[in-house]
Design the sequence.
């Protein structure tokens, strides 16, 4: 049974996969700061020594000989409302930090590390004890939209990964609300249900960019019955889709044979958006939608099972959808 908090199922806003970056750290002598936001789980190879000692898949600072603490600043790839953070000390045993704290800031534009250091940061996680070689989970209660997070370790040591889970909140000033991907995670869409997530998370379907390997898509277990797999997505706002893209890139012997799309508006009955359509392996399929209707949710059915790299649903927000989109941003500022 999975007893992890619900917020851990939300996307990692800091991940390199969605455009996150560790823009600064005061020290990284033993292991590079960029490792903090790698999407893959930490790894460890015993007796793999470099010229600075054991090579760690994480961020590790030198041993402090004076008072103070070490810090790293992460620019979130997806600015949004933070629900919780994970300070993962995997494989750090005699060299993990005994305490950590997390702060955040919201800023427009592209400030330098020096400019960020002059801002007033808000504490999300006060100085809290850590356990070595473990995921340390901290729930966050803040309704604001943040663009950067700062991890402070007290006084020094190593952290394998820093995860910042939450809900993306897009800036409407940076988008054309009449022509956007209604199903994009970065625009505020989210997965609400799925039949199966055996191999990988269904939220990968709506993540930014192209999948570079099979593991960056959504793949289900092999079915041994007469059913089929599916995923449901709440769109970024009420809109009218005009083009759908079903991308099976990297899925060759395990792509679905067919797929269909259904839509609904405000919890109403599901209706056909794209009829059951044959798919090819390792292919970006694009289908224009000639007679699309307004929808708030979409359901992708794949037959009978398999993997999909990306789902894109291009269209425009309705008047009500635009209002909700803008209101969501304004409420989190």
Sequence:
């Amino acid at each position: 049974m999975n007893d992890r908090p619900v917020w851990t199922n939300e996307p990692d806003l800091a991940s390199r996969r969605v455009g996150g970056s560790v823009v600064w750290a005061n020290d990284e002598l033993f292991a590079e700061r960029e490792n903090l936001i790698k999407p893959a789980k930490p790894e460890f190879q015993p007796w793999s020594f470099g010229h600075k000692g054991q090579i760690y898949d994480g961020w590790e600072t030198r041993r402090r000989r004076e008072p103070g603490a070490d810090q790293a600043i992460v620019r979130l790839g997806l600015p949004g409302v933070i629900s919780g953070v994970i300070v993962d000390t995997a494989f750090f045993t005699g060299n993990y930090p005994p305490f950590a704290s997390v702060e955040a800031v919201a800023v427009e534009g592209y400030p330098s590390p020096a400019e960020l250091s002059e801002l007033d940061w808000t504490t999300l996680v006060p100085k809290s004890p850590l356990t070595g070689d473990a995921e340390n989970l901290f729930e966050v209660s803040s309704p604001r939209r943040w663009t950067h997070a700062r991890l402070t370790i007290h006084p020094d040591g190593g952290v394998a990964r820093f995860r910042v889970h939450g809900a993306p909140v897009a800036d409407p000033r940076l988008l054309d609300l009449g022509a956007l991907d209604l199903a994009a995670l970065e625009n505020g869409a989210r997965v609400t249900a799925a039949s199966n997530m055996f191999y990988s998370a269904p939220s990968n379907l709506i993540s930014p960019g192209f999948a570079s390997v099979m593991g960056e898509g959504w793949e289900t277990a092999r079915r041994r019955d007469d059913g089929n797999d599916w995923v449901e997505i709440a769109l970024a706002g009420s809109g009218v889709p005009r083009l759908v893209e079903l991308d099976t890139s990297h899925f060759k012997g395990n792509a679905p044979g067919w797929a269909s799309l259904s839509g609904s508006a405000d919890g109403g009955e599901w209706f056909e958006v794209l009829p059951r359509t044959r798919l090819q392996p390792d292919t970006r399929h694009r289908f224009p939608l000639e007679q699309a209707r307004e929808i708030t949710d979409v359901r992708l059915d794949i037959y009978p099972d398999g993997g999909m790299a990306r789902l894109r649903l291009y269209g425009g927000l309705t008047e009500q959808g635009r209002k909700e989109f803008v209101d969501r941003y304004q409420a989190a500022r």
About this structure: The chain has a mean pLDDT of 95. The first helix runs from residue 113 to 117. The domain at 6-168 is CATH 2.60.120.260 (Jelly Rolls). The helical segments are 113-117, 319-331.
